[in-house]
């Protein structure tokens, strides 16, 4: 028997208009059902675990609204960005697309080949100043592209971020230039900038299909260089059904055995070049990715939790204390669900604010006081206390908390982007990952990707 979860609006690809839609489910799946008076009913599967989908709504926490907004007038979603008066969430992660230059030609790319865009360091500074007004500070900012390291003034972006007090800057990169340019790698190390490295799996066929060429050996060599030189890095894997979804558990095992700080799994989104080269059948549901992650020896069922500030269909995460010698302790199990949600909701990373940091600190000392005689339990808690002692007697700053977290915590994320097939305006209104635009405009990621699709569809597709 079918069940109605919610009402929304979605995009009809045939008449290119937003139409009424609803989220429906039965015992087998949950789907977005688009109801067009001209083209009838179309369905897109968004979950293969109905019980998980129903339970995920309980992870929502009260939203945190921005202190300021670029748009003061609402003329309809997604055309009022932004953020507009109707948007229900502040910015957890800000992304600056600084150049369209790239040294790869990826069939799975979210961008359209030949579409030029970019920012100057001066534009970036203006964006950050506006973002600081909206948010009351600058916590987590990402440089993206294209391949951002190809920007002729790339070093100036790192300098601007440092001067304006960004707690943590990350750079999405394919790693090709970084692997060859020692001076560039030193720049990353000197500015404590994290390289978010494309790493789609452990099979050359995966890279051939998704990136257009064999890259595995290059990726492994790049990671070896990063670890040898102390360059902080994370891993980002785009996962497509029938291509590399079978590798998800192995990717997670590789991550836990590496010095990478975090792992981001992105289910393939059919937009940009991917819209031209693939169909919606390659997009795995978020819960399918979570289930595959649980085949890793370090990810237990229940570790992954919907990120409480965004829509529960958009993202899930898990954080682990690095207990040393290949041992990891789930932060969710350590804190308990309620306190875990307190330190993760509406935050880019747990413990980057004074309140969240204090919750984690108090829990460690509580657990220490009640610790059993199990030597392993005591050893883990002692390691955690050792980290916290380094902050004692010093004024709390998000930057120092982030530096501590790099050593203390490994994190796993799944971020399910929407595309024209599955765009859901109710989900979009809760997006907390936003593109920075000249003048201080912020655009939710999936709104931006969709608007590019609409503007370019007639000529490109």
Structural class: alpha/beta
The low-confidence runs, each spanning 5 or more residues with pLDDT under 50, are 367-374
- Helix fraction, binned, reads 25-40%
Query: CATH architecture of one domain, please?
Result: Alpha-Beta Barrel
Rg, alpha carbons: 21 Å
Which superfamily, in CATH terms, is the homologous superfamily of one domain?
Answer: Aldolase class I
CATH fold field value of one domain: TIM Barrel
Annotation, overall tally of beta strands: 16
Q: Report the β-strand fraction as a percent range.
A: 15-25%
Question: Kindly state the mean pLDDT as a whole number?
Answer: 85
Instruction: State the distance separating the first and last CA atoms.
Output: 38 Å
Tell me the number of helical segments per DSSP (H or I, 4 or more residues long). 17
Shape summary: globular
CATH class of one domain: Alpha Beta
Main sheet makeup: 12 strands, mixed
Briefly, what is this?
By secondary structure, this protein is of the alpha/beta class. The protein has 17 helices and 16 strands.
Kindly describe this structure.
With 461 residues, the protein is an alpha/beta fold. Among the domains are: 1-57; 93-321 and 408-415, TIM Barrel (Alpha-Beta Barrel). The chain contains 17 helices and 16 strands. The protein has helices spanning 50-56, 121-135, 154-163, 176-180, 182-190, 204-211, 216-229, 248-257, 273-277, 286-293, 331-335, 337-344, 354-369, 375-389, 398-408, 425-428, 445-460; strands at residues 3-12, 17-25, 30-36, 40-47, 93-97, 140-144, 168-173, 194-198, 233-239, 262-267, 305-306, 315-324, 327-330, 409-415, 433-437, 441-444. Strands 5, 6, 7, 8, 9, 10, 11, 12, 13, 14, 15 and 16 form a twelve-stranded mixed beta sheet that branches. A four-stranded antiparallel beta sheet has the order 1-2-3-4. Helix 2 runs parallel beside helix 3 (154-163), helix 12 (337-344) runs antiparallel to helix 13 and helix 13 runs antiparallel to helix 14 (375-389). The longest helix is centred in the last third of the chain and has 16 residues, at 354-369. The chain is globular. The protein starts with a strand and ends with a helix.
């Amino acid at each position: 028997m079918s069940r109605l979860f919610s009402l929304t609006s979605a995009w009809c690809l045939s008449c290119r208009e937003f139409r009424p839609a609803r989220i429906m489910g039965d015992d087998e799946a949950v789907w977005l059902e688009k109801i067009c008076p001209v083209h009838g009913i179309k369905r897109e599967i968004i979950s293969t675990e109905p019980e998980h989908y129903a339970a995920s709504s309980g992870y929502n926490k009260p939203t945190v609204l921005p202190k300021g907004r670029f748009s003061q007038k609402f003329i309809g979603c997604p055309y009022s960005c932004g953020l507009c008066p109707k948007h229900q969430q502040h910015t957890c992660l800000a992304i600056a697309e600084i150049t369209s230059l790239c040294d790869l030609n990826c069939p799975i790319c979210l961008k359209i080949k030949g579409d030029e865009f970019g920012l100057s360091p001066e534009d970036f500074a203006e964006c950050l100043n506006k973002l600081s007004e909206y948010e009351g500070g600058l916590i987590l900012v990402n440089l993206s592209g294209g391949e951002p390291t190809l920007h002729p003034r790339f070093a100036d972006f790192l300098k601007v971020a440092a001067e304006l007090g960004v707690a943590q800057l990350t750079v999405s990169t394919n790693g090709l230039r970084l692997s060859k340019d020692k001076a560039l790698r030193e720049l990353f190390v000197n500015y404590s900038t994290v390289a978010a490295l494309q790493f789609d799996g452990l099979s050359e066929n995966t890279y051939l299909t998704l990136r257009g060429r064999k890259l595995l050996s290059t990726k492994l060599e790049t990671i070896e260089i990063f670890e040898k030189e102390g360059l902080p890095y994370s891993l980002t894997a785009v996962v497509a059904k029938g291509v590399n979804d079978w590798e998800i558990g192995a990717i997670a095992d590789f991550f836990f055995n590496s010095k990478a700080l975090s792992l981001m799994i992105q289910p393939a989104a059919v937009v940009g070049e991917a819209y031209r080269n693939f169909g919606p059948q390659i997009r795995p549901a978020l819960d399918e990715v979570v289930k595959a992650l649980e085949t890793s020896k370090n990810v237990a069922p229940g570790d992954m939790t919907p990120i409480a500030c965004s829509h529960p269909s958009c993202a899930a995460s898990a954080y682990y204390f690095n207990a040393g010698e290949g041992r990891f302790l789930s932060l969710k199990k350590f804190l308990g669900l309620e306190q875990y949600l307190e330190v993760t909701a509406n935050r880019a990373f747990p413990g980057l604010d004074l309140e969240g940091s204090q919750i984690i600190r108090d829990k460690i000392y509580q657990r220490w006081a009640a610790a059993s005689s199990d030597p392993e339990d005591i050893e883990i808690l002692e390691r955690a206390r050792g980290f916290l002692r380094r902050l004692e007697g010093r004024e709390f700053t998000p930057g120092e908390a982030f530096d501590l977290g790099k050593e203390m915590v490994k994190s796993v994320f799944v971020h399910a982007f929407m595309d024209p097939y599955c765009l859901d305006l109710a989900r979009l209104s809760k997006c907390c990952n936003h593109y920075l635009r000249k003048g201080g405009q912020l655009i939710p990621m999936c709104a931006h990707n969709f608007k590019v699709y609409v503007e370019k569809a007639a000529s490109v597709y």
